[in-house]
Amino acid sequence: MEELQSTETLDREILEDARKKAYRILKTAEESVKADTENWAVKTAADITEVSSHYAQRLLTMKEELAARLILDKRRIRAEKIEGLLKSAMETYLLSLSRETLLSILEQTVRQRLDFLQKTGEFEKLPNLQVRSYRLEDDELETILNRCIHRGSWSPAVQESGQADLFGDARFPVILITAGDLRIVASVDAAVARLLEDKRRELTVSLLGEEILLEGGAI
To answer: Has this prediction a pTM greater than 0.70?
Structure first.
């Protein structure tokens, strides 16, 4: 009887010991899981903060780049519009000029080209000059060149098919002088382009008013 009681007591002690060990194991596991969960939550929060900060900065950069691009696009469109207005106004003005005035502009351009060659000493070395023209009558060409070059030092070049291609989309008279590798082009269009470049500011103000200077950007 005593042996039976002793056995029961031993069994209870073994079970109690096992229960305590199991409790400790479960407790340790629970604490470990809790710690891992807290660490994961902290890490996740940090990662979310980092990602949010990264994309916030990226969004800010994109907004700044877009704003800068919009400013540049606005200035480009503005410059293109002003350029178009200037060219249109200049073309309208040229179309209103008399034929005599247009030929005078062309003659002055020819003189400027030839004067430059004379200053460099190249003009005296030139052989017989070959001349082509566009939007000019023969007598008009002869009159202009005989005022700028000695008679007999130039001759009209053979007219070729598609000659207009040499002068692009010129709207006004052009003279092309060639001698060997030398090529001299004098045109009313070129004179106008140079005037637009040299007097752009004055022409813009004259066309659009002083207010255009207060808007900023290149003219």
So the answer is: no
